[in-house]
Each structure stands twice: as C-alpha cells, then as structure tokens.
C-alpha cells in the first residue's frame, strides 16, 4: 500500500482549495492511504474530507523544539512512501526530510527546494491559474511519476446528507428566529486578516439592496463578533433587518450551517472557500493585486455558481487594493439577477 503524506498546514481557505487534490489523489490511487498534515484549527475540516484517511496535527513552527521533534517522529512512524508539499516553506521541507520520506515532491521555491527529491516549477506568484489548480498540478506530477492515470472528481467536494441539512436548517431557524422555508443569504464581513475587504458601510449598502424575500444572516468567526454587530446596526439604519450568527458548536457545525445558505457573500476568506467546496453559490470581493486576484483565489464552485468583483483597473498599486473603489450599486445590478435562480 502506498502511504502518502500531503502537507497543507496554513489557513482554512488555503486548505479548502486543496480538497480537489485530495480527491484526485484518492480517486486515482484508491489503494493508497492518505494522511494530511494540518494545524489544529483546520483538523476538524480535514476529518470531514472523505479522501483523507489520517489527520496529523502540526504544532506549527512556533511550538517548542520538543513538540517539533515529536512531530518528526510521529511522521516517521507512519512509514510514508511519499510526501506532497502543496505548501512549501523551509519548515515544511525540513519536516519531510528529517522524517526520512523517500519521495518528497513540492513546488521549486527558494532554498527549501533542496530538501525535496522531486520539484516542479510553478511560479505561483504570477497567479496565472487558480490556487486549486496549482495544487492539483502537483498531484498530476506525482501520478505521472507513478505511471498512473488521473481521475478527476467533480463538485461538490464537500457534502452533507439531506437529513443532516434539514436538521441543521431547523436548528438554525430556531436559534436565529428566522423562517425555515425562506431563502437565506449569508454575509461574512470578516477578513481573517488574509486580504483587503469591503468596508462595513459597503457591506450594509450591499445587504440593503438584496432581494427583500430573503433572510440575511451575518456570520462571524472568533474575534469578528463586534464588527458583525456594527454591521447589523448600520444595516438596520438602512431599513434592512438581519440576524447575527456568531455562536456555533465548532467548525463542523458552522460548515453545516453554511451548507444551508442559498447564497454566501464574503471577501477572500476561509468561510467563502468552505461555501465553494459545498457548491453553495458564492459572491466574492477580491483585491486586484496579482497575488490576491479573483482568478488566483477562485472558490471551488462549479461553473456558473460563483461571481467575483474587484476594484476597477487603474489607480496604481494602491488602487489595486482599495476596495472602496468597488461600486456596490453596480455589483448589485449583477448579483440580483444572477442569484435569482438560487433564491
């Protein structure tokens, strides 16, 4: 049996964009056993993934030396035949090298590449394709080395049963005092510090222009509750009632809640990419800067179920990241007719 370690130990959004890679790997090599190295905060999502057999928790490079050494020994104990570092840093490269994994594949980036046995040039900084495609290219290279054909897996990459969705929807309706038989639009105004985002005033203008028959649910992760409350107040001043969903029973519960949405609106954040993996229709707001473009961080939605906006061309480097240049009324003119089949 091939034992393969896949490393994607950064943020939630980055990890979700690796799901097609896990799916491709397991579908193409069904006899293999796949382990994922992830930080603690994405571990519950990793356990949801049907193509991951084992989850290894990374204490991260800031952990005490004893814990980092223990991680190397844990990895060594699995007896991996191969590792695929979807995310390459010196820390990650040293982990798989010290663990003695014989085949070590990663992007050819900087000094870290000397610790791998197999490297492919990607130049992700050019953002010529979605991050999910860069990840899958590594798996395709691995399969080519194994002389195995590639099996593609289609969306959605994350599913809940109909019974789970009905139960979750009823739970949310009672918790938030909203109608169970009405379309729900989730709006996540938090950024997680990963990218520029719309202002609360822009979000409020957007919310006030959404179809009146929908219930608007404002979501918030840890540390984002106060901003969500402020957004709710601004939206109320504009005459649009919203409800605040800032308490849940953990990341899996929050993910199941997202699966109940008819539409999910956010900046380039982890929750947006969870929604994309579920194939819940998404609207995303992105900077124009090359490393953060709508193309590079495109969610995993199937065709026709994602709409992206970014600042208009011009304005130099500052203009590329000035989200205030996005015309909300113009965006609404696109969003509402596009979203009507989903709501």
Structure description:
With 343 residues, the chain is of the alpha/beta class. Helix content is 38%, strand content 16%. It has a six-stranded parallel sheet, with helices on both faces. Helix 8 (200-208) packs across helix 9 and helix 8 (200-208) crosses helix 13 (328-339). The model has no long low-confidence stretch (mean pLDDT 95). It comes from Desulfoluna spongiiphila. This is ADP-heptose:LPS heptosyltransferase. One of its GO terms (biological process) is lipopolysaccharide core region biosynthetic process.
Helix/sheet category:
alpha/beta
Strand content is 15-25%
CATH topology of the largest domain: Rossmann fold
CATH superfamily of the largest domain: Glycogen Phosphorylase B
List segments where confidence is low: pLDDT < 50 over at least 5 consecutive residues.
none
CATH architecture of the largest domain: 3-Layer(aba) Sandwich
**Global mean pLDDT:** 95
CATH class of the largest domain: Alpha Beta
Radius of gyration: 21 Å
Biggest β-sheet description: 6 strands, parallel
Pfam family, one: Glyco_transf_9
Protein name: ADP-heptose:LPS heptosyltransferase
Keywords: Glycosyltransferase, Transferase
Organism: Desulfoluna spongiiphila
């Amino acid at each position: 049996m091939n034992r393969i370690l896949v490393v994607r130990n950064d943020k939630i959004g980055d990890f979700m964009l690796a799901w097609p890679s896990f799916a491709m790997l397991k579908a193409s090599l069904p006899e293999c056993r796949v382990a994922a190295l992830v930080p603690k905060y994405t571990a519950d999502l990793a356990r949801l993934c049907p193509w991951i057999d084992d989850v290894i928790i990374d204490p991260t490079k800031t952990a005490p030396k004893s814990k980092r050494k223990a991680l190397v020994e844990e990895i060594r104990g699995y007896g991996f035949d191969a590792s695929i570092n979807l995310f390459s840093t010196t820390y990650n490269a040293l982990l798989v090298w010290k663990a003695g994994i014989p085949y070590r594949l990663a992007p050819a980036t900087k000094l870290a590449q000397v610790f791998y046995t197999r490297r492919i040039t990607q130049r992700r900084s050019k953002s010529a394709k979605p991050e999910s495609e860069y990840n899958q290219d590594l798996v395709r290279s691995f399969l080519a080395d194994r002389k195995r054909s590639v099996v593609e897996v289609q969306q959605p990459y994350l599913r809940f049963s109909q019974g789970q969705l009905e139960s979750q929807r009823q739970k949310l309706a009672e918790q938030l005092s909203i109608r169970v038989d009405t379309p729900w639009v989730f709006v996540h105004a938090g950024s997680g510090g990963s990218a520029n985002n719309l202002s609360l005033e822009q979000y409020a203008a957007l919310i006030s222009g959404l179809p009146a028959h929908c219930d608007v649910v404002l979501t918030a992760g840890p540390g984002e509750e106060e901003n969500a409350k402020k957004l709710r107040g601004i939206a109320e001043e504009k005459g649009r009632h919203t409800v605040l969903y800032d308490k849940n029973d953990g990341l899996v519960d929050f993910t199941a809640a997202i699966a109940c949405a008819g539409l999910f609106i956010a900046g380039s954040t982890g929750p947006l990419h969870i929604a994309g993996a579920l194939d819940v229709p998404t609207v995303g707001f992105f900077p124009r800067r090359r490393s953060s473009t709508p193309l590079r961080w495109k969610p995993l939605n199937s065709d026709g179920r994602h709409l992206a906006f970014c600042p208009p061309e011009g304005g130099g480097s500052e203009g590329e990241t000035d989200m205030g240049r996005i015309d909300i009324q113009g965006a609404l003119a696109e969003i509402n007719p596009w979203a009507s089949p989903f709501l």
